[in-house]
Amino acid sequence: MVLCYNGNDFIQQEPLTVQTPLPLIDDFRSIVTENRPLIDTRAPVEYAKGSFPEAVNLPLMNDEERERVGTTYKQEGHDAAVKLGHELVSGEVRQKRIDAWIDFLRAHPDAYLFCWRGGQRSEIVQRWIYEHCGIAVPRLKGGYKAFRNYLMDESLRLVRNREILVIGGRTGSGKTLLLQQIDEAIDLEGLARHRGSAFGRYARPQPSQIDFENALAYALIRHDAAGHRRIVIEDESRNIGQRYIPPEIFAEFQKAPVILLERPLDERIEISYQDYILYGQKEYDEAFRRGETPYGWYETMQHNFKRIRKRLGDERTRRFSALLDAAWQEQLRTGNPEGHKIWIRALLEEYYDPMYDYQIEKKKERIVFRGNAEEILEYLK
């Protein structure tokens, strides 16, 4: 007897072996708008390079098995590779993988599955699940490749057919905080898991480039499904940390009107202090304790100064590094982190503001409005 899902609940029944056509799905938009769970049956090494936001990796073959099958295919041909694959994934190994797929379907009975091109691997998984207990799990027609192509084409189409507004402003002016108050906004830095500056790395690693692009496409499609006719984004360079905005999409952003968020220096220092110091220390400390990052907050910040040494120059790098160290030692001694505001002020005034002035000069013809957060929200209405 096996455990099977009957559309409402899981029940016990005999295994099925009926050779019936199993469903193929190519309504890719609904996968995005319905937050459809997905089973990625590719090997872990393929999944790590990039998958889809709602996908979990439950592979037919692990990396070693996939490599052996691939080598056999090159040396002996298709039939020998298929035979080896069935030998490697048989008996207890096969049953454990079927159990993993069934367990996921128990929690997500509306899931779809896919492999690279929607062919042999996902069809085998689909057939094994059906033969095991009669669950006809749809697989993506064309697999990962077809869905990925749809996402890239659709995201570019949506960007080209929407009004775009770009929120600019000096470092620390609270652009992300403003975006959170705008229904039409898409948070590029949130999708890239990076604050966009040299000091903007989170303790948690950034997604792969493919994962970032797929997440951006999901965000754009869901934005469209919500009925928004305008996209509001933060002014970004092409790169957000180690990730980059796809060139054709970035070119559209570069043509969009710019709204400048203006905020006094003292408020910008406070926002930077809250984000990079108070939140940053808590995040890095927690990640370090969990073993998710090899360095704590202080070591990471000192490393950030070294990363921009060429732009800062040796003298300023030493001075800023010394200010950071003094504030850190004071914090360790007294528990008061307020001393970090000294080097934040220096970094904003001497590094970020001159760089901003240079960059905004090149965009001055695109500026359509300036104001504080409240004024911008009113303008957008």
Detailed description of the structure:
GO terms for molecular function: tRNA 2-selenouridine synthase activity. This is tRNA 2-selenouridine synthase. It comes from Nitratifractor salsuginis (strain DSM 16511 / JCM 12458 / E9I37-1). Residues 32-155 form the Rhodanese domain. The protein is α/β, with parallel strands linked by helices. It has helices spanning 28-33, 44-49, 63-76, 78-88, 91-107, 120-133, 143-160, 175-179, 188-192, 209-225, 247-253, 265-289, 297-307, 309-312, 314-334, 340-361, 373-380; strands at residues 2-5, 10-13, 24-25, 38-40, 55-57, 112-114, 139-140, 163-169, 230-234, 239-240, 243-244, 258-261, 367-371. The protein has 2 domains: 2-149, Oxidized Rhodanese, domain 1 (3-Layer(aba) Sandwich); 162-380, Rossmann fold. The protein is 55% helix and 12% strand. α7 packs across α10 and α7 (143-160) runs parallel beside α11. The radius of gyration is 26 Å and the shape is globular.
Key descriptive features of the protein:
17 helices; Rossmann fold; alpha/beta; 381 residues; Oxidized Rhodanese, domain 1; 2 domains
Short summary of the structure?
Residues 32-155 form the Rhodanese domain. The chain has 381 residues and is α/β, with parallel strands linked by helices.
Helix content: 55-70%
Alpha-beta classification: alpha/beta
How are helices and strands ordered from N to C? EEEHEHEHHHEHEHEHHHEEEHEHHHHHEH
Domains, number: 2
